[in-house]
Amino acid sequence: MKSDDIKKTIIVGAGVMGNSIALTFAKAGIEVALVDVNKESLDRAVRLMRSSLNTLADHGSIASEEIPSIIERIQVSTDMESSARGADFAMEVVVEVEDVKKKVFSDLADVIPDDVIIASNTSGLDIFSFAEIKRPERLVIAHWFAPAHIIPLVEVVPGPKTAQEVVHVTADLMKRLGKKPVVMKEFVRSFIVNRIQNYIAIAYFEILENGWATAEDIDLAVKTSLGIRLPIVGVVQNMDFTGLDLVLDVMKSYGASNTYIEQKVKQGHLGAKTSKGVYDYNGRSEEEILNKRDRLYLRMLDHMEEINAYQPV
Ligand SMILES: NC(=O)c1ccc[n+]([C@@H]2O[C@H](COP(=O)([O-])OP(=O)(O)OC[C@H]3O[C@@H](n4cnc5c(N)ncnc54)[C@H](O)[C@@H]3O)[C@@H](O)[C@H]2O)c1
Predict the structure, then answer these.
(1) Computed from CA positions of residues 120, 155, 207, 218, in that sequence, does the dihedral angle turn out positive or negative?
(2) Are 27 and 63 within 8 A, CB to CB?
(3) C-alpha 305 to ligand 1 mean position (Å)
(4) 151 touches ligand 1 (CB under 6 Å)
(5) How many whole angstroms from 102 Cα to the centroid of ligand 1?
(6) Alpha-carbon gap, residue 64 to 250, rounded angstroms
């Protein structure tokens, strides 16, 4: 099976994520059957998809003449069986409740052929431990980020029985949709981004609860620091600029440590200053590396000012 062979997808769950995922498939020329138990969810999904497509057209991401044909590619229904006819890919996007997902997986498996991939948008449930389907090697996680028709990342996460081919086809399909899939080596709850985001949430909940800063000040502080750096160096490469020796000292100062960082420091790979840290800068000088980084930061700053990013939405 190749991702190019996928012509129709069934998407179960038409809420916040389902409608946005559906329009992404339809935008890429793939027929969509969007299914929900709730007729109101489907009506709302149609309204939201039209509105999102208009926003995309206003921005110039699509031509407004394309909108009718994109909408035509999406059939909404409360009937899973008839919707599944001809589907060669399935996305589960229902509520984050184990029993509901479990039932949807087995219902889906009953109405689609055994070789059709079932991808779940779960935010972190271990679906592999409770899904009861024929051929569990076709079950995979494809975790999108809201708004799914705009944010590029889809985390593709295999379970212990997921076939490698299923992972490849799913990641390729996401690329075909214009997404940037990141494939994890194995399932771990919350994957990459929610794992990171959850720790960040613990910190701002604590600040808010204790009244140490206002909501507006927390957001402004984050936008004017991490907000500039994150798009350029992510979270891991940023340590190469802090210096891994300092990162380790800071960790030690509050009684923690990390074997990955310890190893790097022991090898003398301290980051940009030694031209090797987490990343290898291939002998480039510290000045060269910092120059490249800083030009990007300056462009990012200009862009943030230009779009008035420091104001709340
Ligand atoms: N909201 C987010 O930002 C976000 C981001 C990434 C992943 N997710 C995950 O995506 C999934 C859906 O989240 P959401 O925010 O779209 O939820 P939502 O509540 O907006 O939508 C869920 C939809 O599922 C429908 N549903 C419930 N049971 C069903 C069934 N048996 N068959 C068909 N439809 C059924 C509901 O009617 C509802 O329309 C969850 O697993 C969630 O964790 C959400």
Answers:
(1) negative
(2) no
(3) 35
(4) no
(5) 13
(6) 53
Do 153 and 147 touch, CB atoms closer than 8 A? no
Which fold would CATH assign to domain 213-306?
N-(1-d-carboxylethyl)-l-norvaline Dehydrogenase; domain 2 (1.10.1040)
Report pLDDT for 1: 81
Domain 3-183 has CATH 3.40.50.720: yes
Which residue CA neighbors atom 5 of ligand 1 most closely? 145
Residue 94 alpha carbon, nearest atom of ligand 1: 24
Is residue 164 over pLDDT 90?
Answer: yes
Q: How far is the CA of 240 from the centre of ligand 1 (A)?
A: 39
pTM of the model as a whole? 0.95
Q: What is the pLDDT of residues 67-125, one digit of tens each?
A: 999 999 999 999 999 999 999 999 999 999 999 999 999 999 999 999 999 999 999 89
Pocket test for ligand 1, best of 24, 44, 94, 96 (most atoms within 8 A of CB): 94
